[in-house]
Amino acid sequence: MRVFLISILKFILFTVTFYVVFICIWGTIFPAFLRPNVHKAEDVSGFTNIRLAEAAIAKNVDILFLGSSRAYRAFDNRIFSLSGYSSFNLGTSNQTPVQSFFLLKKYFANLQPKMVIFEVNPDIFSGDGTESTVDLISNTKPDINLLLMARASKNIKAWNSFIYSSFSHLIQNKLPQQKNNTQNDLQYIKGGFARTSDNFYHTNNGNYYYCHLNINQLVVFEKMILFLKNNGIRTILVQAPVVKKLYLSCAENERFDSIMIAHGDYYNFNLTSVQSKFTNNHATSDVFSDYKITDTIYFSDGQHLNQKGVVFFNQMILNLLKKPNNQ
Over the chain, what HEC string results? Predict the structure, then answer.
């Protein structure tokens, strides 16, 4: 029996070792299309590498922005700076509350934000966060918190990417640095914002999403709100405008709005004054409610504002900040 158990242990040790070595070689040698389950920093768009490197040395900001690409492509630090607010945008691609809370805790000590503006929407609360987890694993120094995040994702892509990232960091003793501040039609701006240079509206891009709120994301969201409250941080929840077709494709809109309202100051820029059942809690806009006009004028695709839309949207946010306690 003892010999049998020893043999089993040896087999397990050999298998694990072989698998780890295989992942390291696979990630090193093969191009991205031949390693779909191993992601490296250069495989992921969204400037996460540059943004997190900058966040590590940034200090004491008035406003911290969190959220998915709807955050890092919607809140322009330069516009807020002109109104006297220092800020940093910690948005990352497909960021869910799990990754938002991770980033908030990781950079809270040096950023010391006076206010957090969190872009929330049913889409990011419906996912498991695998894509965002892989993005952070590929662009952050491996640690126990990333390991726990990879484990919680229960996804082989996250595990493999963590193995390769750990190996890469061990060999190079540093993260690969992304030098190019442009990707497709996006330009990275110091402070975390990604400016859309293409003002052409892509009609068929980003006009539908699946909505089924993930209970784990809601639990983490509540913990995040409590963390901010305990630290005395003013928090504003914002659902950025999207095109009408995309917004109406989600069956969870009313439920989501109710949950957000219960957790603080919440403004949904997709609601018209007629649609809103919570007029005291929602910011509405005649411009963004006129979808037939704004789709082509203010959006680059179904989910993201172009620069003209960003300027208008940011001014609306600044107007909110001028109101005491958002009243």
Answer: CHHHHHHHHHHHHHHHHHHHHHHHHHHHHCCHHHCCCCCCHHHCCCCHHHHHHHHCCCCCCCEEEECCHHHHCCCCHHHHHHCCCCEEECCCCCCCHHHHHHHHHHHHHHHCCCEEEEECCCCCCCCCCHHHHHHHHHHCCCCHHHHHHHHHHCCHHHHHHHHHHHHHHHHHCCCCCCCCCEECCEEEECCCEEEECCCCCCCCCCCCCCCCCCHHHHHHHHHHHHHHHHCCCEEEEEECCCCHHHHHCCCCHHHHHHHHHCCCEEEECCCCCCCCCCCCCCCCCHHHHCHHHHHHHHECCCCCECHHHHHHHHHHHHHHHCCHHHC
Is residue 114 included in any domain, yes or no? Answer: yes
CATH number reported for the structural domain that contains residue 126 in this entry: 3.40.50.1110
90 within 8 A of 103, measured Cβ to Cβ: yes
Give the pLDDT confidence of 52-71 residue by residue, as tens digits.
999 999 999 999 999 999 99
- Can you give the residue range of the structural domain that contains 107? 40-131+178-326
19, part of any domain: no
Closest of 116, 115, 65 to residue 95, by C-alpha: 65
Q: What amino acid is encoded at 268 in this protein?
A: N
Token duo for residue 2: 């003892």
Is residue 149 one of the residues assigned to a domain?
no
Number of domains into which the chain is organized: 1
Looking at the chain, how many residues does it have?
327
| pTM of structure | 0.88
Residue 54, domain member (yes or no): yes
**pLDDT per residue over 103-151, tens digit each?**
999 999 999 999 999 999 999 999 999 999 999 998 888 899 999 999 8
